[in-house]
Design a protein that fits this description.
By secondary structure, the chain is α/β, with parallel strands linked by helices. 38% of the residues lie in helices and 20% in strands. The protein is built from nine helices and ten strands.
């Protein structure tokens, strides 16, 4: 198990839960009421988030640069650290804000191994790594135009790292009421005799993205959706670790209800 591997290596490259706790608290004190007043977001939360630790990956769709800020409103854990493209850190004011929330840079031009090493180091320090596996801001889910990066899911399966699904949908303008769904936490384990390669990882990632968009009440365009569902079912066993409102199996019913909070 990955959690056992962390015991010997965590002290070598220790990353605190929050490097700038005062700065972070000030930003949260200002940002939370502003975001509420401007957007009037709706929240559906399946499970506890306050003080939650990793190692875990929070996998989300990405239709706006405001997505992490909206998630932070209700994801009350200082252990949640997001990935962001490295170029954003070249802008002084933006860099100051990102570092305040312990968001760390990833060079999209670098190879998958370098990115995986940084993610693993965060996980070894019991952090929750927030990842937009579509690779950038996308307007609507499209497995053909914006296929998800399979590296994240492959790493989670191979290392036994839980995945929590998260969805942010809706436009971001005055009183637009975007929906934020912090969904189920699951563990994906390879079935006996099954192997994991890049194509299988991509199919499983596409099925997870379909579920993520479904959480927010949106369709995910994928002409091979049935194949991806079948590959996931045949390749991995799903263990549900945290799903208070049964969002993994009963998305259609819960997504139309009023706000639900933990």
């Amino acid at each position: 198990m990955f959690r056992k591997e962390t015991e010997n290596s965590k002290t070598n490259n220790y990353i605190p839960a929050s490097k700038h706790p005062v700065r972070r608290a000030i930003f949260m004190f200002i940002a939370v009421p502003v975001l509420h007043l401007v957007f009037l977001p709706r929240f559906i939360i399946s499970g506890k988030t306050k003080g939650k630790k990793g190692p875990m990956m929070l996998v989300c769709n990405h239709n706006s640069i405001l997505d992490p800020a909206l998630i932070y409103i209700r994801y009350r854990s200082k252990h949640l650290h997001w990935l962001a493209k490295e170029s954003l850190f070249s802008i002084p004011l933006v860099s100051y804000f990102l570092k305040s929330f312990d968001i760390f840079p990833i060079d999209r031009q670098a190879n998958d191994i370098q990115a995986a090493k940084r993610i693993i180091n965060e996980l070894r320090n019991e952090h929750i790594v927030g990842i937009f596996i579509e690779g950038g801001v996308t307007l609507g889910g499209n497995a053909v135009a914006n296929p998800p990066k399979p590296t994240t899911v492959q790493l989670a399966i191979k290392k036994g790292i839980p995945i929590q699904l998260c969805s942010v949908t809706g436009k971001k303008h005055l009183f637009s009421r975007p929906k934020v769904v912090i969904g189920p936490t699951v563990m994906l384990s390879l079935r006996e005799g099954k192997k994991l390669n890049k194509q299988t990882g991509l199919d499983i990632s596409n099925e997870l993205m379909r579920r993520i968009y479904k959480l927010g009440g949106q369709e995910y365009f994928n002409p091979e959706a049935e194949k991806c569902r079948r590959v996931m079912h045949e390749t991995v066993e799903v263990s549900i670790l945290d799903d208070e409102h049964n969002l993994w199996e009963n998305v259609a019913e819960i997504s139309n209800e009023a706000d639900i909070e933990n």
